[in-house]
Amino acid sequence: MATNDILSLLKPGHDNFNSMPDNFYLKIATREISIAPRYWDTYESFLKAIPFDWIEVKYTDLDSHLKVPANGNGIGVYLFAVKPSSQIVDLPGHIFYVGIAGEGGSGRHLRERLRQYIQVSSVKKRTKVQNALELYHQHTYVLYSKLSVSGKKLSEIETNLHGFFLPWANERDFPTNIKHAKKAFNI
Questions:
Q1: Residue bearing the bigger pLDDT, 142 or 184
Q2: 8 A C-beta contact, residue 5 and residue 120
Q3: Which residues pair with 100 in a beta bridge?
Q4: Biggest CA-to-CA distance, the chain
Q5: Domains along the chain?
């Protein structure tokens, strides 16, 4: 039921986007992304030490995936990526959102957290995520990894993922130096 509801919300924006003439389509499709190798170098060693075990699910299949009790159990991190279903040399792909489940010791499982992204009321609260899903839900993939870490460590991992990927749909949880740089230039 949740999948049909959320797809009904997203469909008009998706259909309008895909039916635009090329000049408007390209203008709307253009996102400002940051290519910052210094940040890759800064956050890579920390992230390489984390025992991620990524599971990838197409966004449109997320509801049925989460109905399996073993899927999404436990705390961890998740990424929203937009990419073609058939990549060449594992490219292109863009992480547009990073999040965690279990922050602050809440113990909230990934399943519960990810379910929010297939509920109309929750998606509407996240304007940038809703916009991305309207345009790209057919090409959006959710990657998640269960982690056995403390809530504090989980937040630290999230911050480092933000620093590494610089996801354009996130508004907070960036490393302090990046928050200040974004604020200085109203990014």
A1: 142
A2: yes
A3: 77
A4: 49
A5: 2-179 (3.40.1440.10)
